[in-house]
Amino acid sequence: MLKYIIKRLGYAVLTLFIVVTLTFFLMRSIPGDPLASMARGLPEQTRANFYAKYGLDQPLFTQYTMYMQNFVRGDLGESVVFPGRSVTDTIKRTAPVSGLIGGISLILGFAIGISLGIIAALNKNRWPDYIVMFIAILGVTIPIFVLASLAQYLFSVRLGWFPSSGWGDLRHLFLPVAVSFFGPIASFARYLKSSMLETLSQDYILTAKAKGLSKRAVILKHTLRNSMIPIVTILAARIVAVFTGSFIVERMFGVPGIGFYYISSINNNDYSMILGTTVFYAALFIVAQLFVDFIYMMVDPRIRVGS
Amino acid sequence: MTEKEKNKNLDKNLFEIIGPETSEAEKLGRPQVSFLSDAWRRFKENKIATVALFLLMIIGIMVIIGPWISAHEYEVINRDRRNESPNADFWFGTDRLGRDLFSRTWQGGRVSLIIGIVGAFITAVAGSIYGGISGYFGGRVDDIMMRIVEVLISVPYLIVVILLSVVLNSKSLGTLLLAMTITGWTGMARLVRGQVLQVKSQEFVMAAVGLGVRPWKIIRKHIIPNVLSVVIVSVTFQVPGFIFSEAFLSFIGLGIQPPETSWGALAAAAQNIYTFYPYQLFIPALMIALTMLCFTLMGDGLRDALDPKLRK
Question: Which of B253, B268, B292 sits opposite A141 (nearest CB)?
Fold first, then answer.
């Protein structure tokens, strides 16, 4: 058990190291140097100082070791477009905003999606099943920017209930959350339904029913618990989707989250911001997967014993 | 003389022993049904999937002939007729540069569909080869190959695509496809590997090995047909994923550049002005949603039709 945990941790660190290295060299392989457009028109001495400030006067490998040393200390460098703005500080400032919207929509999406999945599985091939599957398919197929546009048009422009964009008070939370919990609802409902149908056909469910257990006990204790295991798998992807899904939602609703800054740093060619944020996303994903692995180990005795 | 006695006196030579007809015994009672025609029959029974296939065919035909039907070229700018609502002259209206949205929609559809289908195809081929080798050889090879996949999978897909689009400065179809498929095949590799491992351990493969069938024939006759249906279904589900990724990239300004266009780029261009000109967003959005919906529903139908476990 302990050995398994250590092994997983080791892989996670190794993966992170590989990803950071690859990202670093990929970003440096872009034709032209990151400061070219900023340094244009500067006097020779100023330009040299400018390059020295970002360590770009050093050989590539020295740059890499410097970056890795700073990375271990949690320093991701400084924005090249907005000198003086630290990448780490920007992430610290913006990630909680994305986390708030994403967290609420993930929890709500999880609760609603699971409930809908149970309803669909227990009413297979009857109207509640059809309605739930219709919602699930819509949630998968409607692009999020269309959903966001529709929500803005309906609730802000037409009805005027909620502000269409901005950040500051509680009313600003509503539309971004409502738009981004649609995806989780759809995927949780879909996966739970098929997983529950599979569990319901197992012999031990028949045994439980034959023993005369109440319907409630059969569903909650025997079926649901065993059907939740595959759901844990998609949880990791969903946790990251909370952050990546925020690209569009934050841009459209003017929310100052990490996705918003990521997209604008891409549009500004802000190399150090792109690099830093990418590394942050990758680290987040690796941690989320690790987390899910451990949850897996707790909920599934077969894995616990097997390892 | 009684009847019985009469029979007794019949000459035995009048009878001919014909015995069981050996050539007829093994004859098939009804025409042989191949796996594919059987699957097609089951697919046709699924009405939703058939309608989805039909709609996809219409979209496909329109994407091919659409830009020619309209009297207007898709990239011609007409400054006098900007932001016109759909009318008899411009069937889907015009955009803010006065370009005909009808031909732009189908022209954009070409890009979106090509990215969807070609992207899914590339990942399917690459993933099947990689996963197939890993699953078939097993052991150490499998260990190393799957470790590599694990590393690649542990970077969020959209982040990889964005990063590569930035690095490759991708504005064309080729680089976009490269950015999207470079790690996109990992999911398929895992799927194929799992399936190969499962098939490999089944009794009919063991029987074939025991009978001395050569490895290549086992792969061709037993493993590939059993893995293929899973791959086909997965491809159907991946097409909408690629269409969505392309739309996403265009939306954040990393996709196809004007005057070329795609459904995602059309929607992105319309997004700032949709409160005034909702039709400009509505049409490409509908096309994206409809195509993704049709592929998803068709995938469901295909899965039911191709899954041998559901056969009775």
Answer: B292
ipTM: 0.74
For B263-307, how does the pLDDT look when each residue is reduced to its tens digit (9 = 90+)? 888 888 777 777 777 777 888 888 888 888 888 888 888 888 877
Backbone conformation region of residue B132, classed left if phi is above 0, alpha if psi is from -120 to 50, else beta = alpha
Cβ within 8 Å, pair B296-A146:
no
Among B266, B36, B243, which Cα is nearest to B120's?
B243
Q: In residues, how long is chain B? A: 312
Residue B259, preceding peptide bond in cis (omega within 30° of 0): yes
Find out whether B236 and B123 touch, Cβ atoms under 8 Å: no
The secondary structure element, H or E, covering residue B300 is helix B278-306
Give chain B's contact residues with A (Cβ, < 8 Å): 150-151, 154-156, 158-159, 162-164, 166-167, 169, 240, 244, 247-248, 251-254, 264, 267-268, 271, 274-275, 278, 281, 285, 288-289, 292-293, 296-297
Distance CA B291, CA B293 (A): 5
**A282 and B289 in contact by Cβ < 8 A?**
no
Under DSSP, the state recorded for B100 is B
Determine the distance in angstroms separating the CA of A23 from the nearest CA of chain B, rounded to an integer: 8
For an interface test with A, which of B154, B178, B190, B237 has the most A Cβ atoms less than 10 Å from its Cβ?
B154
Please list every residue in chain A whose beta carbon sits closer than 8 Å to the beta carbon of residue B253.
266-267
Q: How far off is chain A from B293, nearest CA to CA, in Å?
A: 6
pLDDT of B136 higher than 80: yes
Cβ separation of B289 and A142 shorter than 8 Å?
Answer: yes
CB pairs under 8 A between A and B: 96
pTM of the model: 0.78
Structure tokens at B220: 């061709």
pLDDT tens digits for A65-113? Answer: 888 888 888 777 777 777 777 888 888 888 888 888 888 888 998 899 8
**How far B259 CA lies from chain A's nearest CA (Å)?**
19
Question: What is the separation, in whole angstroms, between the first and last Cα of chain B?
Answer: 60
What is the spatial distance between Cα B209 and Cα B88, in angstroms, rounded to a whole number?
Answer: 68
pLDDT band at B3 (very low <50, low <70, confident <90, very high): low
Find which of A33, A146, A190 to mutate to test the B interface (most B CBs within 10 Å of its CB): A146
Question: B238-259: per-residue pLDDT in tens?
Answer: 888 888 888 888 877 777 777 7
